[in-house]
Amino acid sequence: MLSHNFLLILKNINYFNLYNSIIMNAVYILLFVTAWLIFAYFWWGRVISNKVLKITNNPTPSHTLKDDRDFSPTKPQILFGHHFSSIAGAGPIVGPIIAYALFGWLPALIWIIVGSVFMGAVHDYTALIVSTRNNGKSIVEISETVISPRARNIFGIFVWLTMVLIQAVFADLTAKTFVDQPEIALPTIGLLILALIFGLLVYKMGANLTIASIIGLILIALLLWFGKSVPIYLSYDIWLILIIFYAFLASVLPVWLLLQPRDYLSMYILIVGLIAGFIGMIFLAPQITGPTFVSFSSKSGPLFPILFITVACGAISGFHSIVSSGTTAKQMDKEKDGQKIAMGGMLTEAILAALVLLMISSVLVWDPKLTSGSEFSFQKILSGSANKVFGIAIGRTLEAIGVPLFLGIQFGIIMLNSFLLTTFDTSARLNRYIMQETLGVKYGGIFKNIYFATGSSLILAYIFCLSGGYRELWPIFGSSNQLIGTLALFVISSYLFGNKSPHWYTLLPGFILLAITGTALLYQAIFVFIPQRNIFLLIVSLVLLSLAIVVAYESIKKIFSKNKLANE
User: Fold this and answer.
1) E strands within 283-396?
2) pLDDT for 262-291, tens place per residue?
3) Share of the chain above pLDDT 70, in %
């Protein structure tokens, strides 16, 4: 009788609805993605550490070249905070949202979980260790040794100009955010003051790191709460000047005094947002209501290659290699910390990208009938309001754990703004390194001066902001950012080959990324810039593609010529 009733129950179950409720539940997917990325950290990380990089106990540049300005041994948890805050930017939030609006959540999620492990994490980790073994030099400078001076010159000019573009865009976005949301100004300014005090207490007065961190977080929470009551109203022009001046200070001051502690404290804002978002999603257990797949073609172009350059930082970003080999390598205490910092940072960013993607497609109700005036419409996202949609989404998610909606939305905007500022100030410091290591080494004089090397790129970024010139270049930023990753992977592969280490782990991703960026640049040139008669962007895109091919050719020629000599 019992078995008969049990069979009747099984017979009456609507298996389609059961399957749909499980598969389309955002929490189950989020937990699967998180488990996969944690597993990949240990599994693939062990392969790259032991087989490719063969991690050593050799002294790192932070010890051998210690100057307490740029080279400074740093505890791994603090350096992780600096590194993760610097690489994240707005990319893992805005990129997946736009990709979802164009193609649906599933294609974007697949690329995040595959690309972040086999391309992004490998790219970041190997760039960090290769730089560490070359006295903390940037991947740009290393390219001269392992490939050729011509490759170094091309790479250096390209990266420097890309960093200026990043500075212009992020300075502009930050200034506009302060104007639109004056209540986040007090927490942001307060964080800078706290960072200075934190740096002095921890590094010069020997304060306990844990206690200092807890006090810092409490004060940040209070600043966030009082921000709404004490909004700061300034014009866009004044905010822009203040932001540029801040980046200048962050670049020339000792790294432990402002840049590093600010990024470390900012990391907790990001981590708190990540954990709170997870908990909120678990409490809500929302079903995905947005489209799983939209089309192989979108208004921005075909799924290949547009999806890959749109998701960007959530899977792989060339900017990460510049951070890894620019600031992080100069501060890493031991080589064994590299996996935690670089690979751990990339995979944490992938978790954030997945969380944002699943949150947006489930917490917000998407209706294809909505007009472009709706805060939840795809048209609104593609017109540039993805950041506002994110703020609303995380606000509603945090509501599930008792956070008032206004505070949740404000926290989301602060979280995004922290990404913008940390990437902005780090890019200013990176451009200083690039100028000092290239023109400074070759010509000396003013090019080696830290104030000129920092100020030159920031002044150009400021001019871009005032003139709106960055908007002309922004359409190809996604391609140019991935192009940096392409060139970095070829440089790393050349280094590994020269040291008789397995190089296909980086060379194969380099070829794949070259195909992606090359196709993207060609597509934009033929189907976008020519019909628009935009001669400027047409020339820029073709020049970028040509530069990538030249560096790839130089790298492959170097590798195969060495291989031929070895066989002879």
Assistant:
1) 297-298, 301-302
2) 888 888 888 888 899 999 999 988 889 888
3) 89
Structure tokens at 376: 């939840």
Residue range 365-380: average pLDDT?
51
Cβ–Cβ under 8 Å, residues 92 and 352: yes
357: which residues sit within 8 A by CB, 6+ positions away? 96, 97, 99, 100, 105, 108, 109, 112, 314
Q: What dihedral angle (degrees, nearest 10) is formed by the CA atoms of 204, 210, 211, 213?
A: 80
Is the backbone of residue 206 left (phi > 0), alpha (psi -120 to 50) or beta? left
Question: What is the spatial distance between Cα 119 and Cα 505, in angstroms, rounded to a whole number?
Answer: 9
* Spatial distance between the Cα atoms of 258 and 249, rounded to a whole number of angstroms: 8
CA atoms within 13 A on the CB side of 319: 35
Cross-strand pairs, 189:
none
Quick one: which of 95, 174, 172 has its CA closest to 471?
A: 172
- Burial of 296 by CB count in 10 Å (0-12 exposed, 13-18 middle, 19+ buried)? exposed
Classify residue 256: in a domain, yes or no.
no
Candidates 39, 105, 138, 11; CA nearest to 355 is 105
Going 126 to 39 to 263 to 230, the CA torsion angle's sign is: positive
For residue 164, is it within any domain?
yes
Q: Report the distance separating Cα 166 and Cα 153, nearest Å.
A: 20
3-state secondary structure 405-434: HHHHHHHHHHHHHHHHHHHHHHHHHHHHHH
For residues 355 and 278, is the Cβ–Cβ distance under 8 A?
Answer: yes
Whether 447 shows a pLDDT value over 90: the answer reads no
Q: What is the mean pLDDT of residues 127-141?
A: 92
Number of domain units in the chain: 1
Residue type, 409: I
What are the φ and ψ backbone dihedral angles of 187, each rounded to 5 degrees? -60, -35
Task: Give the C-alpha separation, 303 to 300, whole Å.
Answer: 9
Domain of residue 94 covers 25-176+266-567
Q: Please give the single-letter amino acid code of residue 197.
A: I
In a domain, 365, yes or no: yes
One-letter amino acid of 89 = G
- Asked if 314 contacts 349 with a C-beta cutoff of 8 angstroms, the reply is yes
Instruction: Examine residue 542 and state whether it is found in any structural domain, yes or no.
Output: yes
> 3-state SS of 180-213?
HCHHHHHHHHHHHHHHHHHHHHHHHCCCCHHHHH
CB 354 within 8 A of CB 64: no
Amino acid occupying residue 392: I
How many Å apart are CA 102 and CA 120, to the nearest integer? Answer: 22
DSSP 8-state secondary structure symbol assigned to residue 119: I
d(CA 417, CA 393): 16
Q: Retrieve residue 76's tokens.
A: 């791994």
Q: Report how far Cα 158 is from the mean position of its chain's Cα atoms.
A: 19
Q: Are 309 and 513 in contact (CB under 8 A)?
A: no
CATH of the domain at 381: 1.20.1740.10
Report the C-alpha gap between 27 and 34 in whole angstroms.
10
Residue 428 has pLDDT above 70, yes or no: yes
**CA–centroid distance for 478 within its chain:** 12
* Cβ–Cβ under 8 Å, residues 454 and 251: yes
